[in-house]
Write a structure and sequence with these properties.
Layout: E1 2-6, H1 10-21, E2 26-30, H2 41-44, E3 54-57, E4 63-66, H3 68-79, H4 87-117, H5 123-143, H6 156-165, H7 179-189, H8 192-197, H9 208-222
Parallel strand pairs: 1-2
Antiparallel strand pairs: 1-3, 3-4
Length: 224
């Protein structure tokens, strides 16, 4: 049994999607970021960095794993799924996983901060991160012209990247003209396990009426 400590963020949804895809039994523990659950001593004992997601594998002597990319690799190796065993195939998956971890996630995260959460609008910062996100989307689009998924077959690289890219409107990003990226977004988003996992725990980010309230709460209680 896996205990998943998470919240309704792209990084959190990576792991709920993976657990659903891999059909692993798990218990979901939804943390309130605005209440500071992630900063409590009991959670810091699981993840010293005080960030979600984190897991505890109860079948492996309560082994704790933090950082979403590390969790995906752990689960893939534990189950033998969604990560090739041959050297080149494994490397391809890890390369695109690192592309998300080092590029798509951080850049979209910063775009979100300056578009939605900053107490004042800073056009230079907004433009800088939106342009970089668009550039990364163009890299994905060009690559997806010759492959159905990021590393050939569907893998943990897709599970890591999709929850971020699907939220492009939150950062007011434009994906017009990126037909391959749109095709990939649609195909991954139609997978039954993705449909289940993307709302565990539920997110209100897609509800226009809730956006201002979410931004205000994050600005006042989380980004402090």
């Amino acid at each position: 049994m896996i205990d998943l400590y998470t919240a309704a963020t792209p990084n959190g949804h990576k792991i709920s999607i993976a657990l659903e895809e891999m059909a692993l039994p798990y218990t979901l523990h939804a943390l309130s970021l605005s209440n500071g659950d992630q900063k409590q001593p009991w959670f810091r004992a699981i993840n010293p960095n005080a960030r979600i997601p984190a897991i505890v594998d109860r079948d492996a002597d309560d082994f704790a794993v933090f950082e979403s990319g590390a969790i995906l690799l752990y689960l893939a190796e534990k189950t033998g799924q969604f990560l090739p065993t041959d050297v080149k195939g494994r490397s391809r998956v890890i390369q695109w996983l690192m592309f998300q971890m080092g590029g798509v996630g951080p850049m979209m995260g910063q775009a979100n901060v300056f578009v939605r959460y900053a107490p004042e609008k800073l056009p230079w910062a907004i433009g800088r991160y939106q342009r970089e996100c668009r550039r990364l989307f163009e890299v994905l689009d060009a690559h997806l012209a010759s492959t159905p998924f990021l590393a050939g077959d569907y893998s943990i690289a897709d599970m890591a990247t999709w929850p971020w890219v699907r939220g492009y409107t939150w950062a007011e990003l434009d994906i017009s003209g990126l037909d391959n990226l749109e095709r990939w977004l649609k195909e991954v988003g139609e997978r039954p396990a993705v449909i289940r996992g993307k709302d565990l725990p539920p997110s209100s980010f897609g509800d226009p009426k809730a956006r201002d309230a979410i931004a205000k709460e994050v600005r006042e209680k989380v980004l402090v």
